[in-house]
Amino acid sequence: MDRDHDLDEGFGSALRRSYGRLAWWIVRLNRVFEPSRASEPSRTEVPPRRAVPPRRPVPPRPE
After folding, report:
1. Confidence band (pLDDT; 50, 70, 90) for 1?
2. 20 to 30 A from 12, CA-CA: which of 21, 30, 45, 53?
3. What 3-state class would DSSP assign to 59?
4. pLDDT by residue (tens digit) across 12-54?
5. Strands (DSSP E) along the chain, which ranges?
């Protein structure tokens, strides 16, 4: 094969590897510095239920 072609392949893969490492570090640092979410306060009471009128029976349909 051509010597220049081999050189380009090696440079390209090294470049991909270094960008991959850089991306990995960026993602890792993003997770470290991300503020943690506050947990929801626990419920001590059950929320009140809405007053719904009782259902009325529907008369049967005429055939």
Report:
1. very low
2. 30
3. coil
4. 888 889 999 999 999 888 877 767 777 777 777 777 888 888 8
5. none
C-alpha 45, offset from chain centre:
31
Which residue shows structure tokens 């997770």? 31
Distances (CA, A) of 26 to 15, 19, 20, 30, 58: 16, 10, 10, 6, 64
Can you tell me whether residue 10 is helix, strand or coil? helix
Question: Tokens in use for 32?
Answer: 């470290």
Tell me the two tokens of residue 13. 């893969």
Give the model's pLDDT for residue 22: 94
| Tokens 């470049």 belong to residue | 15
Whole-structure pTM value: 0.38
Residue written as token pair 């349909």: 61
State the Cα–Cα distance between residues 10 and 18, nearest whole angstrom: 12
